[in-house]
């Protein structure tokens, strides 16, 4: 980066901001045609039960191979799509793809396991969301237990009343609800008693950012106990090491998802590896 001698640190900052705006503009320009062009796809990342290390299901994660920009990671485009509302269109596409595959596996007589999909906090403000998801499930004839919904913890701090009530409606409609990224935001543990969820999904970044000392571990152990006493199941995500696995076993975490076991993969690979292709 060129530094003129008259430039202040603020100019550097402006340049970073300009780059950011350009990057976002590229994403927005490419977004318009992306669904029509079939540029989005799902990848599946398996989840395992710790007790016997068998697969219990998977999470569907969006992948974008943009005609103009190549592969872009969800961490870059999801926040942009959340700002302009387009995330709802993408999520609807991902949910439908997931139902389509579930239907296909059921028709093929495979040993189908549940798949969770991500529901952006933005989607949760549509009063028709429950009807939409119920209709989608019905259209593909998917038994309720196969389509699970992940709602990020931070959604609850933004507008607790709205999101807690929407969560309840979704759960009443038979969806299994996971609270995603738990421990990454600032929701209070106390709030958990007011939210009806089935599965608490712990963010391992939480353990990484705090030190590996006894303290971080104790907090995780306490969360685990609290979850179980509230009748919630637990899954840890972002599990990368054997040490983490051993520790999670010790404190009674039920399931895990992470690179240590498997990375997100194309649907065809998932079918081959886990559905007896
Ligand atoms: P998430 O829902 O918490 O998904 C987990 C993310 O962690 C995924 O990143 C996954 O690839 C990554 N991951 C899994 N195991 C490990 C591990 O062991 N180590 C590390 N470092 N990372 C691991 P991905 O696919 O890049 O997605 C990032 C985020 O983007 C997701 O976090 C979710 O918030 C959002 N996202 C992804 N797909 C969708 C979608 O279809 N709809 C919406 N609304 N958001 C999505
Ligand atoms: Mg998720
Ligand atoms: Mg997560
Ligand atoms: Mg995460």
From TrEMBL:
Domain of life: Bacteria
MF (Gene Ontology): cyclic-guanylate-specific phosphodiesterase activity
Location of the EAL domain: 24-277
Protein name, entry field: EAL domain-containing protein
Organism: Anaerovibrio slackiae
